[in-house]
């Protein structure tokens, strides 16, 4: 969520970016002003940030619901990340993948002279302060090349890389050669050496908390369970991987007229979901 808010504000709404920059750490620590004891000032800022972000997204995307227009402001951070997001094992969380893309894109824009040194540093500092990724060991020249070739196929042969220029607005780059991309990547990784964790994010990779898979109230990774049938997608009380009401619920909700194990489904009475006659239209 925070990464997406940086995305929309960096390229389309400077006032919102300024609020994110001002309250960044407090927004994280107070759950966007919703935790007990959070200052009203932070809560008000969070509400304004979210409203502005949603409104700006609607303004930009409502006229283009079928995505016929391919120069999309909200695609900032989504040029190289679609491929790179899935390369690490386990994969990167989406917000961290796009923040790497956004940070790298900002460095590319800075190299071109269309994003000032001051604004470039301000943006990178915000990513770092809130624990978002700006680099990854597997974000390499080879991955950059593969990701570029992949995105050209979905953008009608053009790169259409959205980059901030200046903060609060954006331009689209189409004429970026591989040599320039690689030079920007080299510069970006050099810059990352001066940041905490060399630009790596906090809790950047997917785990079971993203899926809700638990066994006996424990995340799957922390147990020795190997049977996939023992997983429960509901964070609920289960015993030996089985919810006590599971069998009865399954029998009751069976969709076929014969039910389960010969038990008829009382909710259908032998009729299909299309209606009593079982016909459509």
Automatic annotation (TrEMBL):
It comes from Aureobasidium melanogenum (Aureobasidium pullulans var. melanogenum). The keyword NAD applies. Residues 262-274 have a biased composition (Polar residues). GO terms for molecular function: 3-dehydroquinate synthase activity. This is Dehydroquinate synthase-like protein. Keywords: NAD. Residues 236-281 are annotated as: Disordered. Residues 1-143 form the 3-dehydroquinate synthase C-terminal domain. InterPro entries: Dehydroquinate_synthase, DHQS_C. Pfam families: DHQS_C.
